[in-house]
């Protein structure tokens, strides 16, 4: 029996469905309340399904449903970070990075790893470098690069230290999920 996602998969690729399911799981979006939180210490503010009020001012977070959240992920992260152009495990890492740090930053991180100019623009040099690299190598390097990125966040804003364990646990789970896709 095929896996049943808790959201409509119509119009989405299996790679996207897998990636967004991972994101929803990590963001608490698979809970009955959609992972709704309104932590005053979280710079994202009110959040549900991992969608924050800070990032989406026009969205009524309290009434957001899972299918609308999935559409937001598809448009603002999957497509915006060009995840659809890459192998499943690289796409998963790219998607999670876009959700955590923004699509432009995710592109820059991937460019740094692939050895191209980190300008945040997905051009032919970046595409060639990523497609010409071993996907498992890219994923391994991506995890290390993201860990360094988290360190910079803490250096610039020490109050975010309370999230470091969760960030690193997420990276470990992300790496496991990416390796499963590579197998």
From TrEMBL:
<dbReference type="Pfam" id="PF05838">
    <property type="entry name" value="Glyco_hydro_108"/>
</dbReference>
<dbReference type="InterPro" id="IPR023346">
    <property type="entry name" value="Lysozyme-like_dom_sf"/>
</dbReference>
<protein>
    <submittedName>
        <fullName>Peptidoglycan-binding protein</fullName>
    </submittedName>
</protein>
<dbReference type="Pfam" id="PF09374">
    <property type="entry name" value="PG_binding_3"/>
</dbReference>
<feature type="domain" description="TtsA-like Glycoside hydrolase family 108">
    <location>
        <begin position="30"/>
        <end position="102"/>
    </location>
</feature>
<dbReference type="InterPro" id="IPR008565">
    <property type="entry name" value="TtsA-like_GH18_dom"/>
</dbReference>
<feature type="domain" description="Peptidoglycan binding">
    <location>
        <begin position="106"/>
        <end position="171"/>
    </location>
</feature>
<dbReference type="InterPro" id="IPR018537">
    <property type="entry name" value="Peptidoglycan-bd_3"/>
</dbReference>
């Amino acid at each position: 029996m095929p896996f049943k996602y808790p959201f409509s998969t119509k119009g989405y690729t299996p790679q996207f469905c897998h990636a967004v399911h991972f994101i929803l799981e990590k963001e608490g979006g698979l809970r009955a309340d959609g992972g709704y939180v309104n932590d005053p210490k979280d710079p994202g503010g009110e959040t549900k399904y991992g969608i924050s009020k800070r990032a989406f001012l026009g969205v009524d977070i309290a009434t957001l449903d899972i299918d609308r959240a999935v559409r937001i992920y598809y448009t603002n992260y999957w497509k915006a970070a060009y995840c659809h152009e890459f192998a499943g495990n690289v796409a998963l890492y790219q998607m999670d990075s876009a959700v955590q740090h923004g699509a432009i930053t995710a592109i820059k991180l991937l460019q740094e790893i692939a050895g191209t100019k980190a300008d945040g623009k997905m051009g032919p040099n970046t595409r060639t470098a990523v497609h010409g690299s071993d996907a498992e190598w890219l994923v391994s390097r991506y995890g290390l690069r993201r860990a360094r990125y988290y360190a910079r966040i803490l250096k610039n804003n020490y109050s975010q230290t309370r999230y470091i364990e969760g960030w690193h646990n997420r990276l470990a789970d992300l790496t496991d999920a990416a390796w499963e896709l590579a197998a």
